[in-house]
C-alpha cells in the first residue's frame, strides 16, 4: 500500500500547503538567474512570425456548456496579462510570472480541469487552452523552450486542427511554461478573441531568415495494460523566405525533431484509426 500524503490524511491542511507551495515557487523565481519579460508595448512590432487560432467552445466534454463560457471568461482574464508583452534578447517568458496577476480586477469562474486523473471543475479551469496556444506559437519561432510539461491524459477529442502533442499543461506553483530568447530579435505576443476563436500571434522586431512549421511524424496508437496511448514525434521545419514551397509539398531547409509526445487517450477513437495490440 502506498504511503498517503499528509494532506490526504488531513484534507483541511491542503489550502495551506497550496499557498506555501505557490509562495515558495515565486520566491525562488525572484532569486534565480533569469530576467523575466515584463515590458508591455501597445504598438505592435512590424513583422508577423506566426499565427495560431483555437476554437473556444468544445462540445465534446460531456459537461454543461456553461463551463465553456466560464473558460472563455478565464482565458480573457489571463490573456490580458500577456497581451503585447515583449520578450527581449536574453529574457525569459514565464506563463505564471505573468498570469498570476490575472485576478487583479476580476475573479475566475469555475472551469474544467484534470486533477489526479479525474475531470472536475475549479475556479480558473480551462487555463491550459492559453498555455497550449502559446506553446504552439513558441514552437514556430527560434525561441528556446526551457520548461514544458505535456498532458499525460486526453479526456475528450480536440475540435481544432492543431498539431498533436503541441500542448502544455500548467499548474500554479508546480508546472510552468517557460521560453528563453537566445536570439538577437525582440518578440511580442498578441492575443485576440472573436465569438468562435482565440487567435495568437508572435511578432518580431526584424524579419527572420526562416519561417517555421510544426508537424507530426511517426504517429501511432497502441494498447498497453488495457489503455490506449498516442505517440508521435513533434518536428519543426524551417523554410527560407525565398522558398515558397512550404504550402506546396517542397522540402524544408532544416528539420528538427523537437520531442516525442506520449499521451493516454481516454475516449473512443474513430473506427478508421488503427491501434497496435
Characterization of the model:
This protein is of the alpha+beta class. It has a domain of 193 residues. It is built from 5 helices and 13 strands. It has a 4-stranded antiparallel sheet. Strands 7-13-12-11 form a 4-stranded mixed sheet, with no helix packed on it. It has a 3-stranded antiparallel sheet with strand order 3-8-6. It is globular, with a radius of gyration of 20 Å. The model has no long low-confidence stretch (mean pLDDT 90).
Set down the secondary structure blueprint.
Layout: H1 6-9, H2 14-30, E1 47-55, H3 66-82, E2 86-87, E3 92-94, H4 95-99, E4 110-115, E5 118-123, H5 128-139, E6 144-147, E7 153-154, E8 178-180, E9 187-193, E10 197-204, E11 210-224, E12 227-240, E13 254-265
Parallel strand pairs: 7-13
Antiparallel strand pairs: 1-10, 2-9, 3-8, 4-5, 6-8, 9-10, 11-12, 12-13
Brief account:
It contains five helices and 13 strands. The protein is an alpha+beta fold.
Work out the strand percent: 25-35%
The count of helical stretches stands at 5
Strand order of the largest sheet: 1-10-9-2
Low-pLDDT sequence parts: none
- Principal-axes shape call: globular
- SSE series: HHEHEEHEEHEEEEEEEE
Give the number of DSSP strands: 13
Return Rg in Å. 20 Å
- Residues in helix, %: 10-25%
Cα(first) to Cα(last) distance is 30 Å
Biggest sheet, in brief?
4 strands, antiparallel
- The assigned structural class equals alpha+beta
Mean pLDDT: 90
Amino acid at each position: 500500500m502506498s504511503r498517503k500524503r499528509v494532506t490526504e490524511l488531513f484534507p483541511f491542511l491542503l489550502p495551506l500547503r497550496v499557498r506555501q507551495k505557490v509562495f515558495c515557487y515565486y520566491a525562488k523565481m525572484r532569486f534565480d538567474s533569469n530576467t523575466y519579460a515584463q515590458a508591455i508595448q501597445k504598438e505592435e512590432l512590424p513583422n508577423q512570425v506566426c499565427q495560431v487560432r483555437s476554437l473556444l467552445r468544445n462540445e465534446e466534454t460531456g459537461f454543461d456548456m456553461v463551463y465553456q463560457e466560464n473558460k472563455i471568461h478565464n482565458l480573457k482574464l489571463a490573456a490580458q496579462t500577456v497581451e503585447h508583452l515583449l520578450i527581449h534578447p536574453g529574457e525569459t517568458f514565464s506563463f505564471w510570472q505573468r498570469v498570476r496577476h490575472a485576478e487583479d480586477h476580476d475573479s475566475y469562474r469555475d472551469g474544467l480541469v484534470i486533477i489526479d486523473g479525474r475531470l472536475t471543475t475549479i475556479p480558473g479551469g480551462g487555463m491550459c487552452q492559453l498555455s497550449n496556444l502559446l506553446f504552439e506559437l513558441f514552437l514556430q519561432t527560434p525561441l528556446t523552450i526551457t520548461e514544458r510539461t505535456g498532458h499525460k491524459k486526453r479526456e475528450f477529442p480536440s475540435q481544432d486542427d492543431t498539431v498533436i502533442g503541441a500542448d502544455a499543461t500548467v499548474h500554479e506553483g508546480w508546472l510552468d511554461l517557460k521560453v528563453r530568447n537566445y536570439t538577437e530579435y525582440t518578440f511580442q505576443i498578441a492575443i485576440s478573441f472573436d465569438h468562435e476563436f482565440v487567435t495568437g500571434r508572435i511578432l518580431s522586431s526584424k524579419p527572420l531568415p526562416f519561417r517555421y512549421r510544426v508537424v507530426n511524424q511517426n504517429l501511432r496508437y497502441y494498447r498497453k495494460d488495457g489503455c490506449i496511448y498516442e505517440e508521435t514525434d513533434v518536428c519543426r521545419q524551417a523554410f527560407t523566405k525565398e522558398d515558397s514551397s512550404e504550402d506546396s509539398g517542397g522540402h524544408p531547409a532544416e528539420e528538427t525533431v523537437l520531442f516525442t509526445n506520449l499521451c493516454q487517450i481516454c475516449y473512443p477513437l474513430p473506427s478508421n484509426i488503427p491501434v497496435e495490440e
